[in-house]
Amino acid sequence: MKRKYLFLAFIASLSLSGCDEKSGSIDHQFTIAMIPDTQNMVDYLHQKQTGFAIDSADLYIEQMKYIADNTESKGGEIAFATSVGDVWQHLDVKVDPAHYDRGLRKVPITPRIPPEELVSGRNNFEIPVVIKGYDLLEETAVPFSVAPGNHDYTTGWMHNPYPDDPNPRDRMRAENILPNMHLGGYDVFNGVFGPESKYFKGKNWYISSFHGGVNSAQVFEAGGYKFLHLAFEMQAGDDVLAWAQSVIDENPGLPTIISTHDFLNPRGERLPSPSYDLDAVDPLAHNSAEEIWDEFIRSNDQIFMVLSGHQLGQAIKTSINDKGNAVYQILADYQGRGQAANPPADQEQITGIGDGWLRLMEFDTAPAIPVIKVRTYSTFYKKYSNELAEYASWYRDMEQPGMTDQEFQDADHYDIILNDFKIRFGEPE
Asked: Which residues contact 348 (CB under 8 A, 6 or more apart)?
């Protein structure tokens, strides 16, 4: 009997280490699911009960079910899933105490929707729907991560650069100053995705967190490698980078991926959207993407990929780090797509709900030079981007108006050749 139990334990260990239990060989192919901004799908205003054309929350649940159904434990290829933020839509429209104490104020405004209704919609509809979706992932035991987006903070407000001026808007217009949004508070997000949540408590693959869970670290094994993943809050500050460095120092040499909400714009530049430059408003608490690259990423050779959303569209930028190796930075944000809601002929009236699009990054570590097939798939249309004849005509002018149809198709369907991957991380084991 003892020999039988030892044999079963050995078989189980092969399975956990990314091996095929039938042959003992490495399963070189696996997929990372990248979940772009889901805010518009779960928006309580985008449901039939408020007069919207469809229940867009159904698209979100359908997307999360697709990911869950295609995880390795269900016989699929997905070994890890990562959300790049804006999980839900609405937040409180007020300055949180920590920022108020640092002197930040908001422009006096009359909100279009009463603040109490926004908070009620978030707490009573949006967050429960989000939880229903992530429950589907949790049931599969797949390792996953969630980075917060600007909509996932507790509070958000339009920053007032002239708090002593009775008419700050007039002065901002006169001086041509673009209103800049700011964010504060982690309590709501950490209440759902903190380290003590049902999703992460006791999970051996969830190895660290900071600021209560808005920054986190995971490990997962796939393709013969052990990977490290870091999730950053939006435009992470120096304290976050110091925490992340400690995680890397404790896990040296692992191929490392970062997910964060805002890093690239659709032109492939490390620049924020003009209305969400957190580093400009509050530089003591935030770094720009360029600063995160210069002060952290480029000097850590094990970081080979950065994933982000927030800025509508798609882009890839390859930068060379201090060791001469490639770091692939990838943007995917499809929240503005709204064909699934059966819009009228007047395309200007489209309301973005995402249309079920997500990114699937299909790794193959078997070749001498590994490859990632980056694919974009809609769980609503049940097609890849290159299989949908209307793809460019529906989405290009909104996301990438300067591209040709073929260029737009290529931006969502391409291969990454990992020329230096095995040089950096060795052969799969």
From this structure: none
Angstrom distance (rounded) from CA 268 to CA 260: 15
Predicted structure pTM score? 0.93
| pLDDT computed for residue 10 by the predictor | 34
Instruction: Determine the topology of domain 28-367 in CATH.
Output: Purple Acid Phosphatase; chain A, domain 2 (3.60.21)
Edge-first strand listing for the sheet containing 313-320: 206-210, 215-222, 225-232, 256-260, 303-308, 326-333, 313-320
pLDDT at site 357: 98
Cα–Cα distance measured from residue 182 to residue 117, given in angstroms and rounded to the nearest whole number:
20
Q: Which residue has the tokens 């709204």?
A: 338
Q: How far is CA 329 from CA 46, 213, 264, 332, 366, in A?
A: 31, 23, 7, 10, 23
Scan for tokens 């040296």, then name that residue.
252
Task: Report the pLDDT value the prediction gives residue 346, as an integer from 0 to 100.
Answer: 53
Would strands 357-364 and 371-378 be described as parallel, antiparallel, or unpaired?
antiparallel
Residues in the chain: 429
Q: What is the reported pLDDT for 108?
A: 84
pLDDT at 111: 76
What is the rounded distance in angstroms from the CA atom of residue 47 to the CA atom of residue 309?
24
Cα–Cα distance between 98 and 118 in angstroms, integer? Answer: 22
* 3-state secondary structure at position 165: coil
The residue type found at 244 is A
How far apart, in whole angstroms, are the C-alpha atoms of residue 47 and residue 124? Answer: 13
Helix (H) or strand (E) holding 216: strand 215-222
- Residue 49 vs residues 158, 261, 350: alpha-carbon distances, Å: 30, 30, 19
Q: What pLDDT score does 55 carry?
A: 96
pLDDT of residue 326: 98
Positions in the chain whose pLDDT score sits under 70: 1-24, 343-348
